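TICKET #2291
ISSUE: user wants both folds in one file
ATTACHMENT 1:
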Amino acid sequence: MFISVPPRFAPCEVARLIKGYTARMLFKEFPELKKELWGGEFWAKSYYVGSHGKVSSETIKKYIEECQGF
C-alpha cells in the first residue's frame, strides 16, 4: 500500500485506523473469518512505515507494480 498522509498524522495512528477499518469490514462481510482466526485477530500487531525521501512517487508506484508478480 502506498499512501500519502499529512505530517500532522502519526504513522502509528494511520496504521491502526487502516487495520481496524479493514478488519471490521472483512468480518462484517465474512463473519466466518473470526472463527477461523486464532484469537479473532485479523492483523498482526506489527506494521512497517517508510518514507520515500528523494525517490519519486512514480518510481515507487512502478516498484510496487513490478512486485505484484511474486
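ATTACHMENT 2:
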Amino acid sequence: MPLDIYAEEIISHYEHPHNKGKLKEYDAEFHDDNPICGDEITMYLKIENGKIKDVKFDGQGCAISQASASMLTDLVKGMSLRDARKLDYEKIKELLGIDPGPARMHCATLSLKTLTGAIFVYEHKKN
C-alpha cells in the first residue's frame, strides 16, 4: 500500500479513536506520559478468565500516540493476557503501517507501555 494510505488510517484513528474513554468498572489501570513531547495515555482493563474482556484508553497527544492506542485497543480486546504481554514494537509498526523511526518511537509505543503496565498492575494486585 502507498504510504499515504497508512497516513490516512493514522489520521482516521486520531480523529475518531476507537475505545477512547474510561471504563466504568475496570480491574487495572496504568498511566504514563512522554515528558519530552507531552503525550499521555491511561489504559483501563477489564479482565475475565485471563483475557482482556474490555479495554479503553484516555489521553492526549500527537496523531501517532493516539492512533497507536486506538489500534492497539482494537487488537487486544478478547486477547489473553499472555498473548498481550508478547506484543512489541514490531507489532505497533505493523498496526500503524509505518516505521515511525527513532524520533517518534516513544510516541508509537506509549500505548504499549501503558497496556503492559496495566497488565503488570493486574497480575501483581492479585498476588
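RESOLUTION: both attachments delivered.
EXTRA DETAIL ON ATTACHMENT 2: The chain has a mean pLDDT of 93.
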